[in-house]
């Protein structure tokens, strides 16, 4: 198999490298590739999806998983479980990043996940509502049929 470097544009690489270093991570080839994939995606990506996109790049699954966890732990990415026990990762801030916490839409038919604007769903706890609803950092998942399945 011919090794295909998944990161191509010089300038882009420099930016991604700087991003990793500022976060205290070594800019390894696989981390750069993972960061680039997340940055190019409008939706949060699972480990399996990242592995899929980078198939043929020569990185193994375990390394890519470790890279995703590293990015989440240093705060460059956010982890979300929309209820199917699969971690999905999305970049926080930066180009293509999702700055604020935001709700996700999950298709109950095909399982696809979309990011929703931060202010598209809000919770207003009424009298007598469980205290859990007043806590910060609630993860909001909206379920329904996506455009493809409706
Ligand atoms: Zn669907
Ligand atoms: Zn999102």
What does this structure look like?
This protein has about 150 residues and is α+β, with helices and mostly antiparallel strands. The protein has two domains: about 1-95, Arc Repressor Mutant, subunit A, CATH 1.10.10.10; about 100-150. The chain is about 30% helix and about 15% strand. It has helices at about 10-20, 30-40, 45-55, 60-75, and strands at about 45, 75-80, 85-90, 105, 115, 140-145. The chain has a three-stranded antiparallel sheet. A hairpin with a 5-residue loop joins strand 2 (about 75-80) and strand 3 (about 85-90). The longest helix is centred in the first third of the chain and has 13 residues, at about 10-20. The protein is globular, with a radius of gyration of 17 Å. The mean pLDDT is about 90. The chain binds zinc ion (2 copies). One zinc ion (ZN) binds near residues 110 and 149. The site of one zinc ion has 6 residues, from loops.
Any key phrases for this structure?
150 residues, alpha+beta, Arc Repressor Mutant, subunit A, 2 domains, 3-stranded antiparallel sheet, 3-stranded mixed sheet, 4 helices, globular, binds zinc ion
CATH class division of the largest domain: Mainly Alpha
* Secondary-structure element series: HHEHHEEEEE
Number of domains: 2
Radius of gyration: 17 Å
Give the CATH superfamily of the largest domain.
Winged helix-like DNA-binding domain superfamily/Winged helix DNA-binding domain
Largest sheet: 3 strands, antiparallel
Q: What is the mean pLDDT?
A: 88
Shape: globular
Q: Percent of residues in helical segments?
A: 25-40%
The rounded distance between the terminal residues' Cα atoms is 41 Å
CATH architecture of the largest domain: Orthogonal Bundle
State the strand order across the main sheet. Answer: 1-3-2
Number of strands: 6
């Amino acid at each position: 198999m011919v090794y295909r470097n998944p990161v191509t544009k010089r300038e882009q690489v420099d930016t991604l490298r700087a991003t990793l270093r500022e976060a205290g991570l070594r800019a390894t080839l696989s981390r750069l590739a993972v960061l680039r994939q997340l940055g190019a995606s409008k939706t949060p990506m699972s480990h399996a999806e990242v592995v899929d996109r980078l198939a043929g790049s020569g990185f193994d699954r375990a390394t890519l998983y470790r890279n995703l966890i590293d990015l989440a732990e240093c705060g460059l990415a956010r982890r979300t479980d929309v209820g199917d026990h699969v971690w999905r990762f999305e970049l926080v801030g930066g180009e293509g990043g999702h700055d604020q916490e935001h709700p996700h839409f999950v298709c109950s038919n095909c399982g696809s996940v979309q990011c929703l604007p931060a202010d598209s769903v809000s919770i207003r706890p009424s009298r007598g509502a469980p205290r859990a609803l007043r806590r910060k950092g609630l993860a909001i998942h909206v379920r329904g049929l996506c455009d493809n399945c409706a």
